[in-house]
Amino acid sequence: MLNVKKTVYLAFLLIGLFAPTLSFAAKTFTLSVPGGTEVTMGDADAIIPVTITNGSASGSNIRDITFTINTASYNFSSSTIAPVGWCINGTPTTGSISFAMLQGDGSCSTANNGSQIVPGGSLTFNVKVLPLSAAADVAGDSFLDVTVGGFSRGALPAWTRRALWAELTATPSSLGAGSAITLQMQVINRSTVSQSLITTAPTPPSFSSAIVTNTAGPYFGSTTLSATLNATSATITVVSTTEFQSSGTVKIDSEQICYTGKTATTLTGATRGCNATTAAAHSSGAVVYSLTAFTLASGASAAMTWLYSADITGEGYFSARAQNSTATASSVLTNSNTVNIGSFTAAMSITPVSVISGQTVTVNMTVTNNGTSALINVVPNALTPCAGGATETFTAGPSPASISSIAGGASGAFTWTYTVTGATGQTYCLSGAATANGPVTTNTALSNGGTVARYAVSVSPNVIASATANQAFTWSVFNGGSFTIRRVRVATPTAGGNWTCSSVTPPVGWSAVCAATVSFTSPGLASDIPAGGTMNFTITFSTTETVTTDKTVPFPVTIRDRGGAGASNTLASSVIVSAYALTVTHSPTGPIDADGSSRYTMTAALTSGGSPVSGKTITFTTTNGTLTPSTAITGATGVAATLLVSPVSTIAASATITAEYQNAASTDTVYFTGFVKPNIAYWGGLAPVSVTCGGTRSFTMTLKNISAIAMTLTSASYFAFNDASWGGCSVYKAFLNAADAGAIAAGAVKTVTFGSPTSTGAGGGVTVAASFAVGTYSPAANAAPPPESGLFLTDGGGVNDQYRTVTDTVSVSGGCNSVKINVIEWWEFR
């Protein structure tokens, strides 16, 4: 029989020998989130970036992980995208989501695929959640648990849940030094209770570099006067008081006015010259700003506005949080769009922002001339891919290849297409710049980024106006998986709105009917969405939703494979229902010539609840041609307008113009006829740019034949400008000097002088009328004179006659006459 003492001793000896080995072989992992991680209540796209680090010894690899969370505070989203080489294992629930390894056959398991987390390695999981609402900010939120089979974990990470949602928008995003920036913060109360006296931290919002100065604000609402206001009236008649508190203080020009009540269109009980300001009369259309901080009920929204001056060339962004008066309810720290300050700037965007490998993206570059002189021969450089893992392969562009001229204050656009390839989770973006004669170069612009996904979905339109009826939505589903897709389900809103499905339009051969969840089903393999393919699915709603503040409505899309294990994947899609409606129209009907000079007038009408909204800045962008200007403010009728100058093209072309205000957006497409005749463009060099009324002057400039056909100019060609924009009726018109008449070959550049009083071209200069109103004038083309303006170029035959805009300006000064006033009656009181 074995001696007991020896047995015990032997056991302890064995434990002592193997203890270091057992300790060394322990399987552990740690979790972390970036410092300051915060999410917003009610944000269906909130992401918690959790980094898992394998602290184990050699050979202990992590191939699965499960997160659980308190469903009273959060719900997991099934639209979470797994890291590259990983997949969501099984069907996620609101309280649990599991990840494992993506296998070559499309299945999800713990078998090794090379993407496991090896000892000492780390991997970040971007876990998408829906943070639920509470009465105030909540600090110290975390998971209930995070588990890995056979591993022990470290401490759980923590983050903060914020009660307010905020978005900062700076307009314009491109401007010259000395110009003004309008910054607006839209705030939504996502908490369960009212939040009072909303402000910002810091206040005013800070800029990322010391190149701007705050000049006014915060303003807590705005409208415009709908009637002239004298210096004593106690009632202020405005377009709308929707954005104003029931009592408070407003500012019109430099006067502050305190009021005690309001109706839908008036502020009543006004005390004029409040807060030591001076009472004064104000014109109809003057902007009325609210100086009284607002209180937001649960779910309500409002906006704050500041004005800044752009002091120094550079770029940057604004940053701030929204918060209540006690700082117990706040938003995440939010950054505005990038603002470029300079005489010649560029901005880039890329769409869509989620693609499957092999899908095409569109890249847009907007270039803006923030100076006073025209920019000639604007050409974009080759674009540079970013270091995001995915490969961006050039497909086509730029279109157009160049823009012959961009006037001061105008903008133009170039577009490219690229094919994106890469593994799931890899990102893509592009950067670039443009040049013009001088030479001058823009800043290097960086586009937004996108992500390669196994599956992708987009919905169009993704913004509608409140209470829109009979609206069709089309979901485009892209299949980047290994198997065909046999079923697509779109979950429609079941609460909080009035969404009524009236019809569905499935792909050919597929079936579907209206239901709370519309299920589109393929009849068989041959009709499925093939691997690498896409199909469209349309649902029409006879009624939608009525909102008083912008609302994001989720439409989760669930797809099911035919092969493998018939796995399901849920993708996020959403539609913004905006309290505002924008409608863009154009005039003339078109098409117009693609000659680089013909113009459309683009008009955007902004309404809310069917009523016009005044005093708001509308931002215009285009996919072709140039816009002058790119921003405009709505008047009393809610209308803002800009001019779209045609591109240069020998074939038919089109342009899509987008108008935006906050989340509201509208598009309009216009068309151009290919211009196949000789085409002479203004190529800069206008001199002089300043004249004195009563003096005799000639003007020189450079012209370029941008077509492939020569044109012989005669001395019947002229250059003109007039003072009609200042209420005058004087015209300066100088014909081409005979010495400069003659042929301009295809692609040739020629400097010419317009200085002849008649079409004989004798020269000698032309007198600027003493009646000319003082001012600065843009010699825009007028194809239907009088009054004459811009260039009229002719070869004498009539067929090739053309009117062209001179994109530089002419200033008239001196002892000129005042603007003419027609006196109808004269009353004299003695």
Helix proportion:
under 10%
| CATH class descriptor name of the largest domain | Mainly Beta
Number of domains: 7
CATH topology of the largest domain, what is it called?
Immunoglobulin-like
Stretches where pLDDT is under 50 for at least 5 consecutive residues are 1-24, 819-830
Structural class: mainly beta
Reported for the largest beta sheet, the result is: 9 strands, antiparallel
Oligomer: single chain
Q: Give the overall form.
A: globular
What is the number of helices?
1
Strand content: over 45%
**Rounded Rg:** 33 Å
- First-to-last CA distance: 141 Å
Average of per-residue pLDDT values: 89
How many beta-strand elements?
79
Write a short abstract of this structure.
The chain is mainly beta and 830 residues long. 3% of the residues lie in helices and 47% in strands.
Task: Give the topology.
Blueprint: H1 4-24, E1 28-32, E2 38-40, E3 46-54, E4 65-68, E5 74-76, E6 86-88, E7 96-102, E8 108-109, E9 122-131, E10 138-141, E11 145-147, E12 152-153, E13 159-162, E14 164-171, E15 174-175, E16 180-189, E17 199-207, E18 212-219, E19 222-224, E20 236-237, E21 248-252, E22 255-259, E23 261-262, E24 266-268, E25 287-290, E26 301-310, E27 314-316, E28 318-323, E29 334-335, E30 339-341, E31 344-351, E32 354-355, E33 359-369, E34 375-380, E35 384-385, E36 391-399, E37 403-406, E38 411-421, E39 427-428, E40 430-432, E41 434-436, E42 440-441, E43 445-446, E44 450-452, E45 455-460, E46 463-465, E47 471-479, E48 485-491, E49 500-505, E50 517-521, E51 534-543, E52 551-554, E53 557-561, E54 568-571, E55 574-578, E56 580-587, E57 592-593, E58 599-608, E59 611-612, E60 617-622, E61 626-628, E62 631-633, E63 639-645, E64 653-661, E65 664-673, E66 680-682, E67 690-692, E68 696-697, E69 699-705, E70 711-713, E71 718-722, E72 731-736, E73 742-744, E74 749-756, E75 766-767, E76 775-777, E77 790-793, E78 802-804, E79 810-813
Parallel strand pairs: 1-12, 2-13, 15-30, 32-44, 46-55, 57-65, 67-79
Antiparallel strand pairs: 1-3, 3-9, 4-7, 4-11, 5-9, 6-7, 7-8, 10-13, 14-16, 16-26, 17-28, 18-26, 19-25, 20-24, 21-22, 21-25, 23-24, 27-30, 28-29, 31-33, 33-38, 34-37, 34-41, 35-40, 36-38, 38-61, 39-44, 40-43, 41-42, 45-47, 47-51, 48-50, 48-53, 49-51, 52-55, 53-54, 56-58, 58-59, 58-63, 60-62, ...
